[in-house]
Amino acid sequence: MSRAVKKGLLARKIGMTQIFTEDGQAVAVTAIEAGPCVVVRKKTPETDGYSAIQVGFAGIKERKVNRPDRGQFTKAQLKPTRWLREFKVEDANQYEIGQEIKADVFQEGDLIDVTGISKGKGFAGGIKRHNFHRGPMAHGSKYHRRPGSLGAKGPARVFKGRKMPGRLGGERVTVQRLKIVKVYPEKNVILVKGAVPGPRRGLLTIRNSVKA
C-alpha cells in the first residue's frame, strides 16, 4: 500500500549540470521542472474509502485526451493535462479542486524520493546487466563474455531468479534520500544533488523522503 505524503509533485527531468558551493566545490545536480500541478479530484474516506488527491501536470490539447479523462476535466472545469497521478494524503479536504501545487512546497535542504522510468537499453548480456566479470581474453580461452554454468547437474533445470542476459532498463525506479540543493519558485525548477531515473523530459514523481 502506498504511503501518505506530506509533500508531492509531478515533475519533468530537464537534465544534469553542476553548481559551485560557497567554498568552491563543484556539485553535480539534476535540474527538474517541478509543477505547477493542479488538483483535479479529491478522494475521501466517506466516498472512496481512503484519502487522496488526483493531480494533473503539463498541458495538452483536448483532442489528445481520452474520453474518461476528458470527463474528469470537464467535471472539474479545468483544462486537460498530459499526466494524471494520485497521491495519498492524510486529509484531502485540505485541498481544493483547481488548486495549484508549485515547486515552493519544497525548500533547500529537504530530502526527497524521486520515482521515474529508467532508460530502456534493450537486450543486454550478463556483464552489462548484472556486472558479471568476463573470462580471459586470450585466444586459448573459449570463455569470454558468456554466462557460464547455469546450476547443478542433479535438478537438470535452471532455478528461478538466476541472473542471465535479458531485457535491461525501462523499469520503475525510485532513488531515495536525494537532497534539494536549490529551489527557483518563479521558474518552478529545483536542483537535486545527484542523478534521477529516466531520460530528459521524462515524467518524475517527487515525494518527501520516507527515510528523512
Structure in words:
β1 and β2 form a beta hairpin. The chain folds into 2 domains: 8-122 and 173-208, Translation factors (Elongation Factor Tu (Ef-tu), domain 3), CATH 2.40.30.10; 123-168, no CATH class. The model has no long low-confidence stretch (mean pLDDT 90). It has helices spanning 67-76, 126-130, and strands at 8-20, 26-34, 37-43, 52-59, 81-88, 100-101, 111-117, 122-124, 166-168, 172-184, 189-193, 203-208. 7% of the residues lie in helices and 40% in strands. The chain contains 2 helices and 12 strands. The protein is globular and about 70 Å long. The two termini are 19 Å apart. By secondary structure, it is mainly beta.
Question: What's the structural blueprint in terms of helices and strands?
Answer:
Blueprint: E1 8-20, E2 26-34, E3 37-43, E4 52-59, H1 67-76, E5 81-88, E6 100-101, E7 111-117, E8 122-124, H2 126-130, E9 166-168, E10 172-184, E11 189-193, E12 203-208
Antiparallel strand pairs: 1-2, 1-12, 2-11, 3-4, 3-6, 4-5, 7-10, 7-12, 8-9, 10-11
